[in-house]
Protein: EF-hand domain-containing protein
Amino acid sequence: MGRLQLQLIMSTEPNPKGVEISLTREQLKQTFMNYDTNKDGKLSWDELKSAFKYLKSRFPIIRTELAFHKCDKDENGYIDYGKEMDSLVAYAEECGFTIT
Ligand SMILES: [Ca+2]
Structure:
């Protein structure tokens, strides 16, 4: 899926902050880490998608795609704990998943 398509979909998402559940930054991070189901210290694409589904994202696949685009800095196909995870939490915050 191209970038423009993604932007179009994002911009037509109605009231994105109203439909998703709110968590603090710490809860959000904990949620993502809970979805590291095989406990290998990094989030795979499927693990992250499951987390966004849990967070009631309307478009978990798009969220995951954008999150990887933005946060998988070394492009190894995983969101590694540490800076990539921090960046993921920041991205999720931008999407309106937190209350603060
Ligand atoms: Ca990575």
